[in-house]
Amino acid sequence: MISRSDLGRLVPLDGSVPAKTFVLEVHTEDPLAYLSEIGTDNVELTDDAYLWRLFVPDAGEFLVDGLDQRFWNFHTIMPSADAAAWLRDRVESRRDTDWMWLPSAHLRHVAPGALSHRVRTEFDGGRLVSSEDAAQDLRVQLTGSHAEQLLDQISAMPQYRHAVSFHSIEVILDDPDLGPLREAVKRSGLFAAHGEDFVHHAQFVRTVVGRYARLIEAIEARALRFTPRRDSDAMNEMLSPDVDEPVGASFSGVPIGIRFSRQIEDLRGFCEELFSARAPFRLWGRPEITEDYVVVDAVDLHVGQRLGIEVGRDWMRIYLTAGSCGNTVARLVSNLQIGFDSALTLSQPSLQEVAALEPIAG
């Protein structure tokens, strides 16, 4: 039997291949049953109640850490392509599993003060952006000291600002106790690390996931809630003091607003792509379209829940109901940034603050 202290030995950071951690959002009340289902019973218990070994035949294994009951870490030294393909099959075929969808700014400011070594942008507006646009596609990869500064310069140019969306970044960190760490992060929640101490990598992953979790919680806190009022209300007592029947309700919550820095030229084509049920958006619905306005009663295929969406030429509103998953909005924002407008903003200032992650002063 193994324990959490064995992670550094089983997922070494100083090997010939980087140690990898995939972060998935998981909704389950029975972790072992969930793992047995996705792993076809190739699961082994450990001495830690929240750590499991999941074997992938003819490929390798994951060390699955479910200590965070919502965002699970799948650690492995399998080749990235093999591990990602195996997880993708599970994510896209289930309603209880999703990727972590990091907004562009969460990558841009993934480690304030650290030296960035490699950055990559991968803007693909083929389905949402006009072929006559100044930047329908933009792919840039740069390795070097402070590599993110090139993308900052491109984004300062108005005609290209919407197309500079961070896809991945690699940073170099150093800790006097834990040693050096080279950490690469992709927007889907894949971490790849070379270093000396697994604890250093685990701390870095936990920090990034913690920021993302605060964004998800902030989104869910704004969900629409309809709460019946019962016999504590004086009017109810006047009607019948012996009957506990609702006589009204209180309403709370606000729609999540998105502002685009550019116009949607083809509303019909835009919405047909957005609500086609295909990855990566995973939204389905039949848009009701007028000249400058669209309303959709959509279904999120991740959790199977309904949500209302309105779209204008340069804005969007999402009506998330209580109990819905905030990852729905994060997935929408992240993929709109990489396929339509990386310069979009969230209308509520406090929500924009946790999405933008402005760099820490000093």
Tell me what the structure shows:
The chain is built from 10 helices and 20 strands. The chain is an alpha+beta fold and 362 residues long. The strands form 3 sheets. Strands 1, 2, 3, 4, 5, 6, 7, 8, 9, 10 and 11 form an 11-stranded antiparallel beta sheet that branches. Strands 14, 15, 16, 17, 18, 19 and 20 form a 7-stranded antiparallel beta sheet that branches. The longest helix has 24 residues, at 198-221. It starts with 6 loop residues before the first helix and ends in a 6-residue tail after the last helix. The model has no long low-confidence stretch (mean pLDDT 90).
List the main descriptive attributes of the protein structure presented here.
single chain, 362 residues, alpha+beta, 11-stranded antiparallel beta sheet, 7-stranded antiparallel beta sheet, 10 helices, 20 strands, 27% helix, 31% strand
Q: Concise description?
A:
Helix content is 27%, strand content 31%. The chain has 362 residues and is an alpha+beta fold.
Compute the CA-based radius of gyration. Answer: 23 Å
Question: What percent of residues adopt helix (DSSP H or I)?
Answer: 25-40%
How are helices and strands ordered from N to C?
A: HEHEEEEHEHEEHEEEHEHEEHEEEEEHEH
State the distance separating the first and last CA atoms: 46 Å
Strand content bin? 25-35%
Mean pLDDT: 90
The major pleated sheet works out as: 11 strands, antiparallel
How are the elements arranged and paired?
Elements: H1 7-10, E1 19-26, H2 31-38, E2 43-45, E3 51-56, E4 60-65, E5 71-76, H3 80-93, E6 97-99, H4 104-108, E7 115-124, E8 137-143, H5 148-155, E9 166-175, E10 179-186, E11 190-195, H6 198-221, E12 225-229, H7 234-239, E13 248-252, E14 256-259, H8 267-274, E15 283-284, E16 288-289, E17 293-300, E18 305-312, E19 315-319, H9 327-339, E20 345-346, H10 349-356
Antiparallel strand pairs: 1-5, 1-6, 1-11, 2-3, 3-4, 4-5, 7-8, 7-9, 9-10, 10-11, 12-13, 14-19, 14-20, 15-17, 16-17, 17-18, 18-19
Helix pairs in contact: 6-10
